[in-house]
Request: fold
Amino acid sequence: MVSPVVLLAVPLGLALCVPLVGMASRKAAGFVPVAASLFNLVVSVGLLPDALEEPIVANLGGFAPPFAITLFAGPVGVLLSALVALAGLAVSLYALSYISEGPTIRYHTLYTLLLVGATGVVLTGDVFNLFVFFEILCISSYALVAYVGDRAGTEASIKYLIQGALGSALLLIGIGLLYGLFGTLNMADIAARMGSVDPGPVFVAMVLIITGLGVEAAIFPLNAWLPDAHSSAPSSISAMLSGIAIEVGLYAVVRMVFTVFGASSMLMFLVFMGFLTLLVGELCAFAQSNIKRMLAYSSIGQMGLIVFALALATVHSVTGGLFQLVSHTLSKALLFLAVGYMVYRSGSMEISSLEGMGRRMPLTSFAFTVGAFSLVGLPPFIGFPSKFLIVRSALAEQGVLLQVLVGLLLAATVVEGAYFLRVIQTVYFKKGRQQEARREAPAVALFSMFVFVVLIVVIGVYPNLISNALESGASELLERADYVRSVLG
Amino acid sequence: MRLAVGLILLAVIGVGIAVSLGGIPFGAPKTVIGDHYVDSARDDTGATNVVTSVVVGYRAFDTLGEVTVLFVAALGLGAVLAAAGGGGGRSGVEPASLILRVGNAFLFPLILLFGAYIFSHGHLTPGGGFQGGAIIASAFLLVYLSSPGKRISATRARATESLSGLVFVVVGLLGLTLGAHNFLANFLPKGVPNTLFSAGIIPVVYCAIGLKVGSELAGVVDGLMEETG
Amino acid sequence: MSFLHDYVYYIGAFGLVAVGLLILLVKRNLIKLIIGLSILDTGVNMLLISVGYITGGTAPIFSRPGLSEGGMVDPVPQALVLTAIVIGVAILALALGLAVRFYKNCGTLDLRTAKELKW
Amino acid sequence: MIIVVSLLVLAMLAAAVAALVYRDLLSAVIASCLVSLLASILFLFLQAPDVAMAEASIGAALVTAIFVITIRRTKRYEE
Reply:
């Protein structure tokens, strides 16, 4: 069994190699992220059976747990790192054809480092180490959003950077307070000492940390940057930001709330925040005429749904939330990839300019349709079992308020269906002004899209493929004592 | 309006932090972790500077992440500025005065030497890779000021960055395979404390960090000075 | 006097954080915002270091043979702050690069004129 | 001792406020450089020589330099 640290060290080493490879051949540089994510995918899947049995804990540097940085590869960590690697692999294949202009070597290096940052956040068991990897993730996102260098991209990146840096500063203050209060940075150690400290100051630290992480997780009202950043970035990066970055941010929030603070008092608040986020996201998405902005707002809505499900904090609802997270990653990444070439061919991001795409790019349009149906939650796609699980677990809870919330949640799904169907109608049933020749996306890009299509359909038909792993992930998130025991012994 | 909202927000954050700091008395010893590091750093890592032994020993993984952050920023800066179709020299350059040029020719090697001293003695005295790297970068800044047309070789700078980063990663992976079978484990002999060749991998790693930080910060200065418009 | 002794560093750190946040909240000039970020970072670093200080402690370096382990200040916040300083300068450098880019695109540093996106 | 520290903190906060109010960006940058410099002296008093060195060489010197370079390439006054 390999140590989980290779999931971080090897891609990082490969990322450092990209400039050297690029000196020899510009073209070869694009294959380095492919290799890095393929390696991570293989190793994560290889680690999964072990991690499901017993979380793998690696103490770096060979020191005892509270004194060394700990990597914690439990079910959630390994699953998410496999998800990051999978999405990273497909998107890096897509980028081989999509990213052909500009400083491509820098693009591929930054992209690989984004993967490293995301993997680091999901694997680490140390609060400050979380901050460091979080910064790698954020700073590479800031740079990649501005990659094209046009006006919109630069402004979106600045907006993202200012809000993100503010969030990081609050996060760092929170971490400093945690260290002052507990005298340790190891998550398990903090969790074990939680009872021995005055709860007032701890609450302040928790609020600061959740606010700081919440900026990246796009929890309402901290998500003002998201529609701009996700719509102005190159589509391959939008796919990664929507599919990976915000999910990883949310994971960090959940890990802090559940495992470190064990804060049951925050949960009802988070349920409401998630619900508000869902409502705001879906309604704003409905009002958009720009396809990428629409997808970005839809991401906000989906994040709200995931927060809602996770914050209910029962095994079923957390399983549903994790399932929805996987489903959103696959579907939204697919949508952004498909839209990337549609926008590239039509030359405009307005939904109306996609008329007749069903004939011009039938395969890409098909992929888009699958992603959209999955996101809305239609069977037989992956979105159906995940939404079904969430609704069922929420209805199992007592309380009229919750029932009302579930009703509104279903209404929001209808809104979601409405705006996606509008786009699909435009794509297939409206004739373009002029008949243009059929011109598909390049084969590599289509291949990466169909990787997602196949996964969406297969998991949609056989949800049991991952639901067992997700369920042990859910119990890992909810059982603080087990987490503490497996780290500190 | 904006000011009012800002002040209210500020007041809330202020009260929160003040309440929280009330639980952390200033100047009182509070942590076991810190005491443990102070007590056992010399035996564990062989470095006499405890901060260094934490930065490159106990929490070396953070440091690897941190140099990566700087690497990301330097790359991102290059990508952002190059996006408009790069290149071009620096416009509006005036030659610097004789004093600056002669003084720089004299000072440049000395500053480099000082930077190298700082990062190679990080395990013995205050200082280390970051400080030394910054000093090296400031030597290059001086070169830019004294002869504005001059450029460092981008290829060489990038190669230095990548190679020194790779040294760090490879040292870490060697620790995984040799010795303690742990990433970034100190597999070299720890030597006699308070001598230059002691503390195992720490001086090696700190030299790599120094070169990496130096070339990255110099690259940042270079990137910002370059006229692309 | 003892009030000063107990709180002067906290006040300094907190004051910097407050000024930095204020700049970020009320100013709309890009370079000014970045200056605000840098002051905010300095304040946070100051806060971390003050948390680790121990009254009468010495620097955590065994520079003389006779120095004892007792009475050294906590080295961990210092290590964290070293990391945080470098991360801060990384963000600043990227932000300044974006500012140059923004100026080239728009001819101004004022974010209020950024009409492309809604703020 | 405590008096000196208090005066330094006061000066540091004054410099930060100056960075807030100056319309001339170059002056504001110099004020923020002063903040870093005074902070690095305070770090020295807090028994953190490593951090003081890093703050002085990175925070005060290099950051100020890249700020000045950026201002030279953009605009000097806040409108």
